[in-house]
Amino acid sequence: MAGLLVFLAYRIIQPFFTPLAWATIIAIFSYPLHRRVLRLARRPNLAALLTTLIITVLLVLPVVLIVPVLVREGMALFDWLRSKDGLAQVRLVLDNVMARVPADLGNVQETIEDLSRTAGTYLAQQSARIAGNVVSFVFQLAVMLLALFFLLREGPQLVRWLADLSPLGSGHEVVVHEATELVQATITSGFIVAVVQGALGGLVLWVLNVPSALFYGVLMAFLAFLPLIGPWIVWGPIAIVLLLTGHTGRGIALLVLGFLLVSGVDNILRPVLIAGRSQLNGLLVFISVLGGIHAFGLVGVVLGPLVVATGVGLLKGYRKELQMMAAADRPAAAP
């Protein structure tokens, strides 16, 4: 019967797993802020509501400010590609590519026209799906914020309830500490590194006079959150295009600066930010991130290490309990 209830509960929660997981992660991350708000508001309901509103503004305001800029930059880039200058650049790139490929790839003009028709058809086909994804995103955001409110309001009671159910006794404190530290370190370091990489990437493109540098900078900041992808997926192709269009100096400069400065800052800044805040070694972090993404999607970037850290905390708590039991059973030394 218990197994059936667990299965049914899982099926009920499954459609809301992603927003609930993000709500839990954000609640852990923002709980220090909530404690400050609670000291001022003095009422749990009001404090949870105010903290949720603050988180909502922090999540939505950047989107409201950035999306119009991204749309404007994207449309400018699309218009440039359709203009005579843009088509000339595309044709130059294809000419250079085809000159280096031994196989016959056909007429350049026909290739450009085929690419334009394919892109237009694809965008038309994806418009309905994009609209559906927007509706789904708004719904999941609402679920996440509602769950965040209740997690903030009921946080202490929930932790005490889990402590009462824990077979580890005082070992649950180790688990809570490990999970909290890991969430704080992962989100803080990831956000800071993404902002720095996006800003550096946009600045490098602007200095090298690459069109739509702001658009690409924001895109690199977003991609910096994704492990094994990162900003190089943006600056790399741009550098190749510069090289193929005869801008050798700018292309080489972008390759060097992109590798050493934009992508290289991750290897320097992230360890400094995480140092001392996570008890997981590098191999466990690597495996837990990749496994988390495979199992849970994007939320697995945080949830994967969180699950592993919780498991490590449970083992440490269990070991602590065994040591305490052994110490209690050990006969007292003779005076």
Q: What does this protein structure show overall?
A:
The mean pLDDT is 75. It is built from twelve helices and no strands. The N and C termini lie far apart (56 Å). It folds into two domains: 16-67 and 133-165; 167-325. Helix 3 (44-82) packs across helix 4 and helix 8 (232-244) packs antiparallel against helix 9 (248-262). Helix content is 84%, strand content 0%. It has 335 residues and is mainly α. The radius of gyration is 26 Å and the shape is elongated.
CA-to-CA gap between the ends?
56 Å
Biggest β-sheet description: none
What's the SSE pattern?
HHHHHHHHHHHH
Number of helices: 12
**Fraction of residues in β-strands:** under 5%
Helix content: over 70%
Mean pLDDT: 75
Number of domains: 2
What class, by secondary structure content? mainly alpha
Radius of gyration, in angstroms, nearest whole number: 26 Å
How would you describe the oligomerization state of the chains in this entry?
A: single chain
User: How many individual β-strands?
Assistant: 0
Poorly predicted runs are: none
Shape field: elongated
Topology:
Layout: H1 2-13, H2 17-41, H3 44-82, H4 84-100, H5 108-165, H6 172-207, H7 213-223, H8 232-244, H9 248-262, H10 264-274, H11 282-296, H12 300-329
Helix pairs in contact: 2-3, 2-5, 3-4, 3-5, 6-7, 6-9, 6-10, 6-12, 7-8, 8-9, 11-12
